C-alpha cells in the first residue's frame, strides 16, 4: 500500500511540472496558480489518507497485542467503541439509555415521561454561527458598506450591461436601428432579404403577394397602424397581440425588421388579384399619421 502511494506521489511530482511546461507559452499566471493549488490539494489529501491508514494499522496492532495479553491473563477485553459512535455521542450530548434515570423529570402525561436532555452541541454551535454571521453581515453591508446591497448590486449590473450594449452598438451600427433611426432601403440585396423574411413569417397571414388573408391587405393605401417606414417597423417590432400578431423583436434583428418593413412598403400599388377589402385610414407620404392604437396597447405586428 505504501509503495503504491509513493509511486503515485512520485508520478504526480514528475508530471505536474511537465504539464505546466507543455502548456502554451501564453498560459496565464492565474491558471498556473490554480493548477499548482490543485496539485498541492491532491497531495495533501493523499497524505491525509496515508496518515489515516497508518493510524488504523497501528490501532489494529495495539489491539492485537492487548488481546494476547488479556488471553494470557484470562481477561476478556471490552469491544472498542467506534469513532462514529464517539462522534455521535459528543455531537448529540445524549445520555445513554441505561443512565436515563439521571435526567428523568417528574412530569408525567398519561404515562409519558419527559427527559431533561440538553440541546445537541451541533445545533447550539450552528445557532452561534448564525449569530456571528449576522453580526459580520451587518458590519460588512450596513456599517462599513464594504459590499453592495442587492439594489446597489442590481444597479451596478444594469450599468455594466448598458455600457456593454453601448459598446456593441458602436461597433455594429446596424444593431442600433430603432423607430427613430429606421430608414427605407432600396438596395436590392436588402429588399431580397426582407422578402425572404416576409415569405417565411408574414405570408401566412398577409398572402405571399400581400393581398391580405387573416391579416390586412398590404398593397393598398389603407393602414391600420400607419404606413410610414417608422410605423411599419414599430408594428413589426411590438406586434399586435390583440389581433394575433406577435412581437417579432425577439426573433428578428433590427436590420431584418428594417428590411422587411422596406419590402412591405415596396408592395404598395402592386394590385394583386382578389385583394382583401381596405382597412384603416389612407396614408400618404408626408401626411401626419394618426395614432390607431393608444400607447398602452401598442404591442402587435404588421398593420
Automatic annotation (TrEMBL):
The chain crosses the membrane at residues 32-58, 125-143. Residues 1-22 form the signal peptide. Keywords: Heme, Iron, Membrane, Metal-binding, Signal, Transmembrane, Transmembrane helix. PROSITE patterns: CYTC. It holds the Pfam family Cytochrome_CBB3. One of its GO terms (molecular function) is metal ion binding. Residues 189-268 form the Cytochrome c domain. PANTHER family: CBB3-TYPE CYTOCHROME C OXIDASE SUBUNIT FIXP. This is C-type cytochrome. It comes from Fulvivirga sedimenti.
Amino acid at each position: 500500500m505504501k509503495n503504491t502511494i509513493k509511486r503515485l506521489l512520485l508520478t504526480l511530482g514528475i508530471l505536474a511540472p511537465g504539464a505546466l511546461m507543455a502548456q502554451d507559452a501564453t498560459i496565464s499566471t492565474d491558471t498556473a496558480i490554480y493548477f499548482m493549488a490543485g496539485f498541492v490539494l491532491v497531495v495533501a489529501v493523499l497524505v491525509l489518507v496515508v496518515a489515516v491508514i497508518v493510524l488504523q494499522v497501528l490501532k489494529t496492532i495495539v489491539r492485537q497485542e492487548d488481546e494476547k495479553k488479556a488471553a494470557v491473563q484470562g481477561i476478556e477485553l471490552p469491544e472498542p467503541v467506534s469513532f462514529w459512535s464517539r462522534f455521535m455521542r459528543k455531537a448529540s450530548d445524549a445520555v445513554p439509555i441505561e443512565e436515563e434515570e439521571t435526567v428523568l423529570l417528574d412530569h408525567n402525561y398519561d404515562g409519558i415521561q419527559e427527559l431533561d436532555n440538553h440541546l445537541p452541541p451541533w445545533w447550539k454551535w450552528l445557532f452561534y454561527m448564525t449569530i456571528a454571521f449576522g453580526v459580520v453581515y451587518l458590519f460588512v453591508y450596513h456599517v462599513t458598506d464594504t459590499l453592495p446591497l442587492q439594489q446597489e448590486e442590481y444597479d451596478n449590473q444594469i450599468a455594466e450591461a448598458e455600457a456593454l450594449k453601448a459598446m456593441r452598438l458602436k461597433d455594429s451600427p446596424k444593431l442600433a436601428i430603432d423607430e427613430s433611426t429606421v430608414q427605407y432601403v432600396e438596395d436590392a440585396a436588402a429588399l431580397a432579404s426582407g422578402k425572404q423574411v416576409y415569405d417565411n413569417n408574414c405570408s401566412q397571414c398577409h398572402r405571399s403577394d400581400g393581398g391580405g388573408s387573416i391579416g390586412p391587405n398590404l398593397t393598398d393605401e389603407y393602414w391600420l397602424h400607419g404606413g410610414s417606414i417608422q410605423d411599419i417597423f414599430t408594428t413589426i417590432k411590438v406586434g399586435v397581440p390583440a389581433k394575433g400578431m406577435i412581437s417579432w423583436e425577439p426573433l428578428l434583428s433590427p436590420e431584418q425588421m428594417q428590411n422587411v418593413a422596406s419590402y412591405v412598403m415596396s408592395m404598395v400599388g402592386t394590385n394583386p388579384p382578389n385583394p382583401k377589402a381596405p382597412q384603416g385610414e389612407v396614408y400618404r407620404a408626408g401626411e401626419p399619421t394618426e395614432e390607431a392604437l393608444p400607447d398602452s396597447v401598442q404591442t402587435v405586428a404588421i398593420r
